[in-house]
Design brief:
It contains 10 helices and 13 strands. Helix 4 (147-159) links the parallel strand 8 (138-141) and strand 9 (163-166). By secondary structure, the protein is of the alpha/beta class. It is globular. Helix 8 runs antiparallel to helix 9 (269-283) and helix 9 packs antiparallel against helix 10 (296-306). The chain has a single domain, classed as 3-Layer(aba) Sandwich (UDP-N-acetylmuramoyl-L-alanine:D-glutamate ligase). The chain has helices spanning 45-55, 70-81, 123-132, 147-159, 176-180, 189-195, 205-210, 251-264, 269-283, 296-306, and strands at residues 8-12, 16-22, 37-43, 59-67, 85-92, 97-103, 109-114, 138-141, 163-166, 184-185, 216-220, 226-229, 235-238.
C-alpha cells in the first residue's frame, strides 16, 4: 500500500443483478433441458470491478445508476457492505440492470444483459463526480454504459492527472476520442480481435504489439494468464495458476479490479498482473461473479506474495 493512503479509485460503470443457471450442457435453439442450479447474485462489470478493487485495499467510489426497485436497493446495500462509496450512484426511473447467465459443465458462460438504469447515467453528473472525488488517482470504465459517459469521465480524469483504465467489454466500436484518453486498454482475446483492424486473435507478441503502438495494452488470455505491451513496445507475459474452472463469470472484472488497486498501490506492472491473474484464477474455482471473488484476507495474501504490502 502507498505510504500515505490507499489508492483512490472511481469506477464509472454498470451495476446489475445476476440470475445464473448452471447445467452440464446448455440447450440448443428450441431445446428444453433440466439444469442443475439457479442462483441470484450481484454483478454488472462496473460493480464487479469496484468490489474487487475494494477487496484489494483501494478506497473505491462507484459512479452510476440503479433503479428505484428491490434490485436497486439490494445493490446499494451490497456496496455499503463492501465499503464502497455510493455518493455518486443515482436513482433512475428505469429498472436496475440485470444479467441472465448460463454456465455449462466446463465453467464457460453465455450472458444476456438488460442495461436498464445503466444506460441512464447522466454525463454531467458523471463528470462532476470525477471532478469532486478527493485524491482521485485511477478511473475505470467499461462498455456496459453509454460510451459518451465514459468519454466525459475519462476526459475529466485526464484533466486531473488521473490514470484511466478501459475494459472494452462487452465489445462495441470505440471512438478515437475515447481511446485518446485511455491509458490502459484491457480487452480479452475476443475483444482484442474485434478491436484489431485486421480482426486477428492475440496469438503472438507481434500481433499484441500491433494493436496500439506507443500505448499500453494488457490482453487477458484466460487459462494462459495475461500479456502486456507497454508504451515503449516491450512485451511481458504472466501465466495463470492452473485451476479447475467451475464458473468464469466475472473473472475479467476480478483481474481488472485487482490490477487497478495494485498499480495504484505502487506495484510495478508485471507483479500487478501476477496478482490479478492469481485472484482471477481463484475466482473461477467458485460459482458466481462477486460471490466468487477472493476475500480481503485472501487478496491481501496474494498481494503480499507479489510484494505490494
Amino acid at each position: 500500500m502507498s505510504a500515505t493512503h490507499p489508492p483512490v479509485i472511481a469506477v464509472v460503470g454498470s451495476s446489475a443483478m445476476d440470475m445464473t443457471c448452471y447445467a452440464d450442457v446448455l440447450p440448443s435453439a428450441g431445446e428444453t433441458i433440466i439444469g442443475n442450479l439457479f442462483t441470484t447474485g450481484f454483478g454488472g462489470k462496473g460493480a464487479n470491478q469496484a468490489v474487487m478493487a475494494a477487496r484489494a485495499g483501494a478506497t473505491v467510489y462507484m459512479v452510476g445508476r440503479v433503479g428505484d426497485d428491490v434490485f436497486g436497493k439490494s445493490v446499494l446495500e451490497n456496496f455499503a457492505d463492501q465499503g464502497i462509496n455510493t455518493d455518486y450512484v443515482g436513482i433512475s426511473s428505469l429498472a436496475t440492470g440485470v444479467a441472465h447467465i448460463w454456465v455449462d459443465g466446463g465453467g464457460e458462460n453465455r450472458i444476456l444483459i438488460i442495461p436498464g438504469a445503466n444506460h441512464d447515467i447522466d454525463i454531467q453528473e458523471a463528470t462532476q463526480a470525477i471532478n469532486s472525488i478527493p485524491d482521485l488517482e485511477i478511473v475505470i470504465g467499461q462498455c456496459e454504459v453509454i460510451q459518451e459517459v465514459t468519454l466525459a469521465a475519462f476526459t475529466a480524469a485526464k484533466t486531473r492527472g488521473c490514470t484511466t483504465i478501459l475494459n472494452p467489454a462487452p465489445y462495441q466500436p470505440l471512438s478515437k476520442e475515447l481511446l485518446a484518453v485511455t491509458d490502459w486498454l484491457i480487452p480479452n482475446e475476443t475483444e482484442f480481435s474485434q478491436i484489431h483492424p485486421e480482426q486477428v486473435l492475440p496469438t503472438s507478441d507481434e500481433i499484441i504489439a500491433s494493436l496500439r503502438p506507443g500505448q499500453s495494452v494488457i490482453v487477458t488470455l484466460g487459462a494462459e494468464g495475461a500479456a502486456m505491451v507497454d508504451s515503449s513496445g516491450v512485451i511481458s507475459r504472466v501465466p495463470s495458476p492452473r485451476v479447475i474452472a467451475v464458473d468464469s463469470t466475472g473473472a475479467g472484472d476480478c483481474f481488472i479490479g485487482t490490477l487497478a488497486a495494485a498499480l495504484g498501490s505502487g506495484m510495478d506492472s508485471s507483479p500487478a498482473m501476477q496478482s490479478a491473474c492469481a485472484c482471477a484464477a481463484l475466482s473461477v474455482t467458485r460459482k458466481g461473479a462477486q460471490s466468487s471473488y477472493p476475500s480481503r484476507e485472501e487478496t491481501a495474501d496474494i498481494l503480499n506474495t507479489s510484494g505490494v504490502l
